[in-house]
Design a protein that fits this description.
7-stranded mixed β-sheet; alpha/beta; about 425 residues; 16 helices; globular; binds zinc ion; 3-stranded mixed β-sheet
């Protein structure tokens, strides 16, 4: 067992050990709860009500078991680490968080969309100010699901753009040392189950049953607590990076450049050359800086949907399958379907919620070639004026398989590449690098 935290132990060694001991040897474990059960009185939650006091806080704290109005726990995929922290003796299970000085570094909203039960169903629009707005709920522990802060980001490609003369430091958005001033928001998923069900064209009951069965029964309350409409899924969230003044984002008279980017750790962080993810992301940041320097705003939303939301293990399995069968562009999507049973699990229908949270009505330059993303955004009521493809010179040699396959699949935004004969596109052979 890891060494327990000395700081925690020294502050309350007796009570902490006693409480932890009780939590580890608890005799009674409730497998699920039921409506009307003794002690079960969830705080009312009226999703989509524009008055936050009437809407009510999303209550998910383990300390508020009887008053919870959400299924699941905060932290997305990290939720289980709380249990490990207690097991390791590093966290007192009765410790309540202190949110002093954590309020947003920049105000966002509220916007009309926050009071629309259909526009935002996968995040809590009040999540960034929950601790402040609901501070009057003295008997509840309300946990933020969004945090807004400011940062400088320093990216080699942006330095390259400065050297090449494409970008010029202005001392405010792009600093003399090449770093960029950004406002950023980390967002955890909060699903309003009736709204998510509607997006997928199924009943709420069907969605609940599918979520229950496909997680091997991990969340019995999806079935037993149909009175609880919010679900905090054990998935990754999203991060919004804003360039320029965030307050201009809802203003249709001020230009907005935007990319919605799905996580690709291999390329985004480690520079894998099999896809265009990092080069396209960097191009989007460059475009965002240019728009912000002209008085507009730039936005990059980074979604934790690794490997088309199939995960990195599936993704690498697909890489092997591709490379061992000649890596033809015509087989690009088939390889994923063969391994995972589905070509793509990102389901962009949920993606526009963050755009509505930011009050966006129009995107002037949309830095993406994806039809799925474009269609989802336009269908949700946001206008897209122009689509910006990735410049040809930024495509790694081995990534032409990906781009050409997407063009062949009808990606409208990729029509600048219509001269490509997709039947001839082939990637580097697996044997060339030991697969
Ligand atoms: Zn990628």
């Amino acid at each position: 067992m890891p060494e327990p935290s000395k700081r925690v132990r020294s502050s309350s060694v007796d009570s902490f050990e006693a409480v932890r001991g009780r939590s580890l040897t608890r005799r009674y474990v409730s497998l699920t709860s039921h409506p009307g059960q003794s002690g079960v009185q969830p705080r009312a939650l009226h999703w989509g009500c524009n008055d936050p006091q009437v809407r009510g806080p999303v209550v998910s704290s383990v300390h508020d078991a009887g008053k919870r109005n959400a299924i699941g726990v905060n932290g997305g995929a990290y939720g289980v680490y709380r249990a490990l922290a207690i097991a390791a003796g590093a966290l007192n299970p009765t410790k309540k968080p202190n949110f002093a000085n954590t309020e947003p570094a920049f105000p966002i909203g509220p916007y009309d969309t926050w009071g629309d039960a259909k526009k935002i169903v996968t995040m809590d629009p009040w999540g960034a100010v929950a601790a402040q707005v609901f501070s009057n709920e003295k008997d509840l522990e309300v946990l933020p699901t969004i945090a807004i802060t400011k940062a400088h980001i320093d990216i080699p490609e942006i330095r390259d753009a400065i050297r090449a003369g494409r970008l010029k430091p202005d001392g405010k958005i792009l600093l003399a040392d090449g770093s960029i001033n950004v406002t950023k928001a980390a967002i955890e998923p909060v699903w309003y189950l009736p709204g998510v069900a509607e997006r997928f064209g199924v009943s709420e009951a069907e969605l609940r049953e599918l979520l229950f069965t496909e997680t091997n029964g991990s969340y019995p309350e999806l079935i037993t607590r149909t009175d609880l409409k919010a679900f905090l899924p054990p998935t990754g969230g999203q991060t919004a990076y804003i360039f320029g003044d965030p307050a201009t984002i809802p203003d249709v008279n001020v230009p907005l450049t935007c990319r919605v980017h799905d996580e690709c750790n291999g390329s985004d962080v480690f520079g894998s050359d099999i896809c265009t993810c990092r080069p396209y992301l960097m191009h989007a940041i460059e475009e965002c800086v240019l728009t912000a320097q002209k008085g507009g705003a730039g936005l990059v939303v980074y979604f934790r949907k690794e490997g088309r939301a199939l995960g990195e293990v599936t993704k690498y399995l697909v890489y092997n399958a591709r490379k061992r069968t000649g890596d033809k562009a015509t087989e690009y999507f088939n390889c994923t379907a063969q391994v995972a049973g589905v070509e793509d699990s990102r389901f962009q229908a949920m993606m526009p919620d963050v755009l509505h949270w930011l009050g966006i009505k129009r995107i002037d330059r949309f830095v993406s070639m994806s039809n799925m993303k474009y269609d989802a955004i336009v269908k949700s009521g946001i206008e897209i004026v122009e689509r910006v493809p990735i410049p040809k010179e930024l495509i790694p040699a081995d990534a032409h398989v990906e781009i050409d396959a997407k063009v062949a699949a009808g990606y409208e935004g990729g029509k600048v590449y219509s001269d490509v004969d997709v039947t001839k596109t082939q990637g580097r052979a697996g044997k060339d690098f030991g697969i």
